[in-house]
Design goal:
This protein is α/β, with parallel strands linked by helices. The protein folds into two domains: 2-130, Rossmann fold, CATH 3.40.50.2300; 141-213, Arc Repressor Mutant, subunit A, CATH 1.10.10.10. It contains ten helices and six strands, in the order βαβαβαβαβαβααααα. It has a six-stranded parallel beta sheet with strand order 2-1-3-4-5-6, sandwiched between helices. The mean pLDDT is 85.
């Protein structure tokens, strides 16, 4: 898997590069700002890019803007966005526009190489990766009208894992139930939330997150 790594902190960038190189990934480019990142993507056409959400010059959402450009201009390149803070509105913005081959994880997790590799492999497979902390924050928000009120505890647990982008098989393994049980939970969730249960996997994630944002 060929990667470009973008982070304005040289120490963080080099640390990620070293971890991934040791794990067998090919690092074809590095960048310290959004402009350099886009040039690296155009030059190397990597399988995926790892992008810090805050980069020069304003250190606000340059990385997010670059990620959106990459997904629009280079659909074959996946993007894993890193954030130092829990910013669910940024995750929602990216996922609603480009619901497949993207990920949004907290920066603190990237130095757990197993989590980083798993996220990259899932993105390579066309999946969506959302940090569990962000999913928990979305599901735990207080609302005047709670769209999740009708869900059982087990259905809420299933929805949280579904929103992370896990397949039914992966959810079954995580919950220690059969895949058929998960399918039943998913059917009930989409029925209760008024969502299309027949849509593709990444569409299901997009629909869940869009609904939670409403």
């Amino acid at each position: 898997m060929r990667l470009v790594v973008a982070d304005d902190s040289m120490l963080t960038r080099e640390g990620i590069v070293r971890l991934l190189a040791d794990a067998g990934f090919e690092i074809v480019g590095q960048a310290g700002d959004a402009g350099a990142l886009l040039r690296q993507i155009a030059a190397h056409r990597p399988d995926a890019a790892i992008v810090d959400i805050r980069m020069p010059p304003t250190h606000t959402d340059e990385g997010l803007a670059a990620a959106r450009q990459i997904r629009a201009a280079h659909p074959g390149t996946g993007v894993l966005v890193l954030s130092q803070y829990v910013e669910p509105e940024y995750a929602l913005r990216l996922l609603e526009e480009h619901p497949e081959r993207v990920g949004y994880v907290l920066k603190e997790r990237v130095f757990d190489v197993a989590i980083l590799i798993d996220a990259l492999r899932r993105i390579e497979d066309g999946e969506t990766v959302v940090d569990p902390t962000i999913v928990s924050r979305l599901l735990g928000r207080r609302r005047r009208v709670d769209p999740l009120e009708s869900l059982t505890a087990r259905e809420r647990e299933t929805l949280a894992l579904l929103a992370e982008g896990l397949s039914n098989r992966a959810i079954a393994a995580r919950m220690v139930v059969t895949e058929r049980t998960v399918e039943a939970h998913v059917t009930q969730i989409f029925m209760k939330l008024g969502l299309d249960a027949d849509s593709a996997r990444h569409r299901r994630v997009q629909a869940v997150l869009a609904y939670l944002r409403a």
